[in-house]
Amino acid sequence: GVANALQPPPADPADVAPYCQVDESEQECLERFQAEQLESLAPDVEMYCDSDEPEGACVLRYKEERPVRALLSAVQRCNTYQLSEFTPLLVDAEQVGWLNPTALEALTAQLAVGRACELVEANRQTKGLAVRIAPEVPPGVNGAEARSEVVASLVQELVDDGVIPRSKLRNEPQEVHAFSAGFVVAGGDVKPALRMERAAMIYFGVPSHGVHVNGWVRDPDEPASDVPFAMWVATRSMSKATYPGLLDQMVAGGQPAALSFDENVRKECEEEASLPPEVIAAIEPAGSVSYRYATPKGLSTKVLMTYDLEMEHGLQPLCSDGEVEEFRLLRMGDVLRSLREDLPLWKPNSALIAIDFCVRHNLLDETEPGYAELVRLLNQTLV
Fold first, then answer.
1. Which of 169, 204, 239 finishes a domain?
2. Whole-angstrom Cα distance, residue 344 to residue 297?
3. Domain containing 124: what range?
4. What tens digit of pLDDT does each residue of 106-132 get?
5. Are 19 and 29 in contact (CB under 8 A)?
6. What confidence category does residue 205 fall into, taking pLDDT thresholds of 50, 70 and 90?
7. Please, are residues 121 and 130 in contact by the beta-carbon 8 Å criterion?
8. Distance CA 14, CA 165 (A)
9. Which CATH number do you get for residue 346?
10. DSSP 8-state symbol, 346
11. Residue 354 and residue 361: Cα distance in Å, rounded?
12. Is the domain of 189 the same as that of 212?
């Protein structure tokens, strides 16, 4: 029937993390996610249809006439958290992460001993109590190595207690730096505070970084205009571990510690879109978008470096690494319509980057509901 035709596909736990609340079970989160996808549907969709209207025509008409959501909801869904529920994680006096209540409780015995970690009064940047890692590293010892050994023991304790699933361990140590240092390329002059198992980062609230590239095209009838006419949108491969089949930027990827942002974005453009060097050379840095949301694992904080790349008419990105199902060139009006009406079809953080692009290129203005709050959330400083 019509109602079945409008049902969204079943949600996968990996795809709804930005929606989950700290105190929700995975099943509760999935059920709420499905309910919110359906909340714009009429209570009885069949009653919406005319008696002589074909089912397919009714579905299409309903989708065209249903209420349009403000873009603010796309930004808010990636910024849902209560910072007061998390405890700052420190190395010496510098903050490196946030502990959620579950991780904090699991470390109770270690906190009582006070060797691997201890409770301290918060500094000026934080309020209340904080947890400091490896407070007794002696002078003259390689601090990063000593703290890394201590953190490895804490991670193992969380694994033994079932907080971190053993199956998720990757045995990939990642550098952890103070918030004040921002992103630091590995091997440079700035030494890490410590190294931590990659799978444990989210449980300790350590921020992560990424790069996203907006590929845009001018209006062929107005080549002198700088207003973007269309955007290349990628559909993620169905084989991707996270967000398979959802809409994404033309190029996007996580940020490895071994590369600079510039090196990484060029590598991703080659691998994901097969762009030639002369095209990649024209890429323009466009700032960053930061967001933070609470998950059952911990507080996820991400900083995405954004780039704009004007694409010539006739130049089409081609996937060479299997991570993209297809590329489509959508007019900007269709991109905005999709963000408003089909938000669940977008990878959550990719929707943020697309909205940020529209704001920066004056495709949105103060007539957009919640515009001021939308812009504030896109431009917030979290790290």
1. 204
2. 22
3. 87-204
4. 999 999 998 899 999 876 655 689 999
5. yes
6. very high
7. yes
8. 15
9. 3.90.79.10
10. B
11. 11
12. no
